[in-house]
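HUMAN: You are asked to prepare a plain-text protein record giving the amino acid sequence and the backbone structure tokens, both parts labelled.

ASSISTANT:
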Amino acid sequence: MSEILSLAPQNVWKHFYSLTQIPRPSGHLKKIQAFLLEFGKNAGVETFQDEAGNIIYRKPATPGMENRKTVILQAHMDMVPQKNKDTQHDFENDPIQTYVDGEWVRAKGTTLGADNGMGVAAIMTVMEDKTLKHGPLQALITADEETGMYGAFGLKPGTVEGEILLNLDSEEEGELYIGCAGGEDLTATLEYKEEETDPEDVALKVTLKGLRGGHSGIQIGWGHANANKLMARFMNQVITYDEACLVSWEGGNMRNAIPRECEAVITVPASEVDDVLAFVGECEQVWRDEFATIEDGLSFTAERVELPKMMVPDEIRDNLVDAIFACPNGVERFIPTIPDTVETSSNLAIVEIGNGKAAIKVLTRSSRESMKDYRNTAIESCFSMAGMQVVRSGGYSGWEPDVNSPILHAMKESYKAQFGEIPSVKVIHAGLECGIIGAVVPGLDMISFGPTLQCPHTPEERCLIPSVTKFYEFLIATLENTHGYDEDNPIAKNGVRQ
């Protein structure tokens, strides 16, 4: 039995543990959907699944609190499936292996799934607990948030109804989020006719690994290295000076994760092998120096492999490498009025080249639509010049902050009363579902908050144990005191923004 079951609050950790035992990577949610449906029925709350795959719970108010504003609790059921290269794990079938490391809960070689399993676990605890005091409650547990927010986009009017939305998908306890960035996917593709390799050449597989990666929104400004961009630097030089040819390139596997690993197979004349091997070592040292305080696990190696029969034609190779090298990546700029918050960024997330096909996938984020379009146009121009077909998809708008939000005012006061300090109010450079849901349920007053997580979307993901207690205590206090939005807050007439 897992040691996390002894942690407080026990019911929250109990439900989180149950979630770790149900495989739930994005795109493979049948098992978790069935589990959540069964849980809701056993908990005695109204339970159903909508057409988009979302799970909805409805719990009546505590007697005497029927006239309170209806609160919608919201989290997403899927998790990002990331693992270390040497970790044996099947995300579609294997449970997550958790362990306690001091004040943190981690997973063994994989993502933990606290993003957003902690939010779902909190919802399950609220739905199950018959002792809590609250007004009418609904819960919306969305599907496939991590790969395109498909559950939120598929939500139909009338599926959930309420006046207040509490999104439980933030990652720093003591912070209240009132806005988020929008995003858009960009995919560049190309098909090409392969050429035969020179039988006198030598094939080398070069492998870059050990980078920290991270969430492509929250951590995009932390200076973490992008494996695809580093590989482009290497390829540019060995093509120019060592007559290298490209056979294949595989880097990154999730749009919303900064790529941690990259692997390429190249061919070079036998006379250039020693020079290339020496250059691999030089690159590793240079990059270790460049990222000395950030990437302590960086590894760049090369090994001889069997010579493949086919490769990328030289002209196509040059165009692809040039485009990847030049592609804008990382932070474009910060919000002028909030200098410590990223406004616009992009993540060169996935590169797949080989067997006559090339695909490059990017995720662009911005809280300003004009800047999102600017960044995407720059990226599109890069790959168009390389002869690639570029498609934009999955675009969603950001969540505009409302500093006069009644729920914001009330929760700030509640947090101060509970913990003796005022929470920070922030806008997050990541995609939250609030804006999408708010368009389906007009008039919602929305806040996002959660326990402290670090390094989501990576095998370094961890959850701070003491923060879970504060997060849950704050949640149940908020639910108990929703009457304050009517009676004590002069800003909030009728509990909705005016």
Confidence is low (pLDDT under 50) at residues 484-498. The CA atoms of residues 380 and 390 lie 6 Å apart.
